[in-house]
Specification:
By secondary structure, this protein is an alpha/beta fold. The chain is built from 13 helices and 8 strands. An 8-stranded mixed sheet has the order 3-2-1-4-5-6-7-8, sandwiched between helices.
Length: 280
């Protein structure tokens, strides 16, 4: 098995590491428009070699597109065209699915593509952020599986099995609304809290002196890159706005209870929120 990873950052690089280490791939070929990232990936042995996109696709059995969402939408039709007349399989790791699937809906080689999303990551980016075991015991989502060939589905399922991930199937819009509520809002919350603290506390040393574990864990995601998240918020804007409205409503309830010194209401809100622990 020869695997091509397009976009050698945190996700693509971490997948490359374990797919090679666990003998799913005999060879990993990297593609990245950033020459520094490509060099780092090769020097740190995330990939065996780097190539341009056309040559890399031609040399691979499985192509993993691990680029920001807007780039994925541009590259995916081109990659599927390069796969014409072959049994190559293409998958992506994007955190929104409806827009990507719409882009290739009528592509003649659509059946060779499996839309997927491994639910894992950190706040860091780039090839130096890649780590082994990032995906272990987490969930991978496959969308619109009825439009992929059984061979393509089986290969991608085997890939995620190698990464020790549980695979579940969802429809694209169902996935996108769920991702907005469990992932996208978490990042917006971290960005907003970070901005609020930075605006209020101009003395950076004072922030660091007062920061505890709770604060650090809450704003951890604020270190995530704009390059990745701006396209996500754009592509999933309808559902992101829906969850933002709900979030703002809940913040308003806390604000009102605190303003009115309504301890019973505050207690009820906190106790209601505690129920999330049972789910987690």
């Amino acid at each position: 098995m020869k695997v091509c990873v397009v976009g050698i950052g945190l996700i693509g690089g971490s997948m490359a590491l374990d797919l090679k280490k666990r003998s799913f791939a005999e060879k990993i070929i990297g593609v990245d428009i950033n020459p520094q990232h490509a060099n780092i990936a090769k020097l740190s042995k995330l990939v065996d070699e780097t190539m341009d996109l056309e040559k890399a696709v031609g040399s691979s059995d499985l192509i993993i597109v691990a680029t920001p969402i807007d780039v994925t939408k541009k590259l995916l039709p081109e990659i599927l065209t390069l796969c014409a007349g072959t049994d190559k399989v293409v998958t992506d790791v994007g955190s929104t699915k409806a827009g990507i699937l719409q882009k290739v809906k009528n592509h003649p080689n659509r059946a060779q593509y499996v839309a997927s999303h491994p639910m894992a990551g950190t706040e860091f980016s780039g090839p130096l952020a890649a780590i082994s075991r990032l995906f272990d015991y987490k969930t991978a989502i496959i969308c619109d599986s009825q439009n992929s060939t059984s061979q393509a589905l089986e290969m991608v399922k085997q890939m995620y099995d190698t990464l020790h991930m549980k695979v579940i199937f969802m429809q694209p819009h169902e996935h996108d609304v769920s991702a907005a509520y469990v992932s996208h809002i978490s990042h917006i919350s971290a960005f907003a809290l970070s901005l609020a603290v930075l605006e209020k506390e101009k003395d950076e040393k004072r922030i660091l002196d007062l920061a505890s574990g709770g604060f650090a864990s809450t704003v951890r995601l604020a270190k995530s890159s704009a390059e990745m998240w701006v396209p996500v918020f754009d592509q999933n804007s309808d559902y992101v706005l829906e969850v933002l409205d709900t979030y703002i409503e809940k913040l308003g309830q806390f604000r009102q209870a605190i303003q009115e010194k309504n301890h019973d209401e505050l207690t009820q809100l906190i106790q209601e929120s505690n129920k999330i622990q049972k789910i987690l």
